[in-house]
Each structure stands twice: as C-alpha cells, then as structure tokens.
C-alpha cells in the first residue's frame, strides 16, 4: 500500500497557513503514519517474507504504536481483575501475539494500495481520534479510525474502529466473554493467534 509522494514547490508550502501545518504535524497522526509505513513495507515483501517473516517485521511496529496492555485489560473485561499477575502477563503476551498475527495475516501482499492519514485529528477528552484510509488501486477506500491516548508522553492506539464504527476491542470482548476462566481465555487467545499464522 503506497503513499503517493507529493512534490510541492517550496513557494506553495510557504503559503500554507501555520494552523494547517501544525495539524499535519500532530504527533498522534505521525504515529499512525509511521505504522502505516511499516505495514506498507511488509506488504511489498509479503509473499517473500511469509507469515513468520511478516510477524517478525511487524511486531516492533505494533508494540511502538499500540498500548497493548490497556487494550488487553479492556478486551478481557471482568476476568482481568480475577487474574493473577502471572496470568495478566500471559494475557498481554497472548493478546500481543494475536494483534501482530492479525496484521501479518491481513496485510500479506501489495497490489498498488496506499494509506492516507487525515491530518485533521479530533480531540475527545484525553484521547485523540486519527482517521486513515486504505486506498486500493481500484474500488472504494476502507475507512479506519484509531483512538489514541498518551502513555509516557507518547500517543498510542487504544482501540481501532473499522468502517468508522466497528470497535475492535468491543468485538474482542464479546468473543472472549464466553471463556469459562482466565486460563481457558489465555489458551483461546493463543489459539486464535496460531490460526492467523496458519
């Protein structure tokens, strides 16, 4: 998925209002732009890398861009509070595996796509909402929105909304709720990650 190189003459850039330039430089949007670039790089090498290679390439990008511990706590729901510290660590590790494996599975090849990040970032209380599009070479773009929150001074993703409204974490929480106990949930999340890598 490629982002078009826009060669804008310096004179035109000089005429861009300072507010627009500030929006484009929003750190939350920059985080998503960097993540999209990592996805694009892997997609272009997708077939050669294979599932395991894509996983290895994407893991550091996912861990930089996402607050995986916070996402795990929300997705697990009430079972989180009953989990031991060791089980909580295992849950975060399993959820991390599933998140990386899902991206490695879904972004496995390149056919002229590109990413476009909207510089107009919305602020919602302590959070920001960054909108992005996956634009195929033919057909309609796919809308993705990232809900982000500052963690240690860095903006990190805490939820992903597909087609503008489908919350990844709400979907995961619904899927995870039927697990009878924490240990069974850890096994289920790891099994889902294994299936994505199959």
Structure in words:
With 198 residues, this protein is α+β, with helices and mostly antiparallel strands. The chain has one domain (10-197): Tgt2/MlaC (Nuclear Transport Factor 2, Chain: A). It is 56% helix and 19% strand. Strands 1, 2, 3, 4, 5 and 6 form a 6-stranded antiparallel sheet that branches. A hairpin with a 2-residue loop joins strand 4 (142-151) and strand 5 (154-162).
Along the chain, the helix and strand elements come as HHHHHHHEEEEEEHH
Basic shape = globular
Strand content: 15-25%
CATH architecture: Roll
Task: Give helix % range.
Answer: 55-70%
Q: Based on DSSP secondary structure assignment, what is the total number of beta strands? A: 6
Number of spatially distinct domains: 1
With helices defined by DSSP (H or I, 4 residues minimum), what is the helix count? Answer: 9
| CA distance, first residue to last residue | 23 Å
* Integer-rounded radius of gyration: 18 Å
Main β-sheet description: 6 strands, antiparallel
By CATH, the superfamily comes out as Tgt2/MlaC
Structural class: alpha+beta
Mean pLDDT over the full residue set: 89
Concise description?
The chain has 198 residues and is of the alpha+beta class. Helix content is 56%, strand content 19%.
């Amino acid at each position: 998925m490629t982002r078009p190189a826009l060669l804008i003459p310096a004179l035109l850039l000089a005429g861009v209002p300072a507010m627009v330039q500030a929006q484009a430089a929003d750190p939350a949007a920059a985080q998503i732009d960097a993540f999209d670039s990592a996805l694009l790089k892997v997609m272009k090498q997708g077939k050669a890398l294979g599932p395991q290679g894509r996983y290895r390439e994407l893991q550091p990008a996912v861990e930089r861009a996402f607050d995986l511990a916070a996402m795990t706590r929300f997705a697990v729901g009430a079972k989180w509070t009953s989990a031991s510290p060791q089980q909580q660590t295992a849950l975060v590790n399993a959820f991390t595996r599933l998140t990386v494996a899902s991206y490695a599975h879904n972004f496995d090849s390149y056919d002229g796509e590109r990413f476009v990040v909207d510089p107009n970032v919305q602020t919602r209380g302590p959070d920001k909402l960054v909108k992005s599009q996956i634009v195929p070479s033919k057909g309609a773009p796919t809308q993705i929105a990232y809900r982000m929150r500052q963690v240690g001074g860095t903006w990190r993703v805490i939820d992903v909304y597909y087609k503008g409204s489908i919350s990844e974490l709400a979907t995961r929480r619904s899927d995870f709720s039927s697990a009878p106990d924490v240990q069974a949930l850890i096994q289920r999340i790891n099994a889902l990650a294994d299936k994505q890598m199959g």
